[in-house]
Structure formats: structure tokens, C-alpha cells
Amino acid sequence: MKKTSQIRNKKIVGGSTMPLNIDLSRNELRHSGRSVRKVSYVESEDSEDIDEEKLNKPQKEDAEEDDGDSIERVLWHQPKGIAEEAAKDNRSTLPVVMSIVSESEPLWDDVEFYIKWKGQSYLHSEWKSLVELQNLTGFKKVLNYMKKANEEWIYKKGLSREEVEVHDVSKEMELDLIKEYNQVERIFADRISKTGNDDVVTEYLVKWKGLPYAEATWEKDTDIAFAQDGIDEYKAREIAMTVQRKLVDFRGGRAKLACEGLMNNLNG
């Protein structure tokens, strides 16, 4: 059921089942022991797509990506179960850098992926296993991510301990950006919406730190309760703007009355 919404602030700125046994080709990478290359296996929109999926099933129109969960970006991966254990212990489930280099390539059936969903903010990213992702729109991005991760594992195996530390620093910086995208920078609109159960909820239009206004998203007040200061600042701005508009209208009305009185005197 579609949500019916009433926007109170009108001035808004910006505007085929895949087998789990996947044989990913490995390309030998040249590298120097004297320098450390920054390798990112976060999915890029410009990255070369794997054609295997195209051979096994017809292409879908982009419009279909709005139906159900659609993978926009694969942000990270880690051994399966880490996120669940963190949640049980009331710890953050955000990804962390694994500094230990595994002796073998990742066993993807034993891995969970941190997924950003299309049309949703980074705040709603989730850890999902390969089997949970294989039938979703955008699974090709998971395959590309796995290929890049295998290439990075080969590259990292040839680094010295010092070079691994430098490499990990670059990955930490990458993670810092992901964490930043979960921080509310500014709220600039609100609306009242109804859920599928006809429950009335307040939603705020959020500009996220490090992201442009074009990637602002509507969020339920309960989902951004951690940003109460930002909500309070928005409400204070709205009150101040309402008072200012009333003051301008009042002054405009008085000026109109004075002008009409002057004209009456001149005509009298």
C-alpha cells in the first residue's frame, strides 16, 4: 500500500538463480615492494560488469529495479556471524578492517556482505549472506565486488607487514566515509505519513553528512532519534520563520492601512 503524505515544508532544496559455486577468474597483479597501491573493492558504477548473468537470463529494464529489494552498492564483507554477535552484545554492527591476511581466498558461502539498498539511506544498510542476495536485482554488483576482493587478497599477500599497515589505513579511511554517511547533517523538511497499518508517523527530510542534497532521504522520526539535536534545530528554525512571516504580514497590513488612510484624507 502506498503511503499518503502531507508535506508541511514546501520549500525543499535539491532535488535466474545463481549457483553458489562461482568460479571467479583471478588476474595476476603487478606490484612493487617499495610502494603500496590503494585498492578499493567497493562497487563502482563505472566498473566493468561480469557478463555471466547476461548469458544466463534476459536483461531487465531499469524500471523493474523499483520492485522489491534492489542492491545499489556492496560496501564491505566479513566472516558470517560477526554482525549477529555484535547485535547480541549491543555493539555496533558497522564494518571494521580485518588486519589479518587469510592464507586462503575468501570462501564466499561463509561471508556476509554489507549492502546499501537502492532508494534508501546508508542508515538502512544491512548484512546479508550470498544465498540471501543471489536472486535480488543488482546481484551482478555482488559478483563484481567478489572479483575485486579476490584481486585484493592476491595483492595483499605480497605486501610486507609495514605495507599491510599502510594499506589498512587506507581501508580505515574508506570506512570512515561510510560511517560519515550515517550522520545527520541537516533536516530541512517534514511531513506526516501513514504506514501500511494506517499508523501516523512523522518523517523528516535528511541531508546526510558528506553527501549532496540530491541524496537526501525521508526518515521516520524513530529511525533518527539519535539526531534529536538536529530535529530540535529544525523545529526552532521553523518557529522562527513562522514568527518572521507573521511579522512581515503584520507590518505590511499596517502600511496598507496607513496608505489607505492617507489617500482618504487627500480625497476628502
TrEMBL record:
Transmembrane segments: none annotated. One of its GO terms (biological process) is nucleosome organization. Keywords: ATP-binding, Nucleotide-binding, Nucleus. The keyword Nucleus applies. GO terms for cellular component: chromatin; nucleus. Residues 43-52 have a biased composition (Acidic residues). Residues 69-157, 182-246 form the Chromo domain. Residues 31-70 are annotated as: Disordered. GO terms for molecular function: ATP binding; ATP hydrolysis activity; ATP-dependent chromatin remodeler activity; chromatin binding; DNA binding; histone binding. This is Chromo domain-containing protein. It comes from Vanilla planifolia.
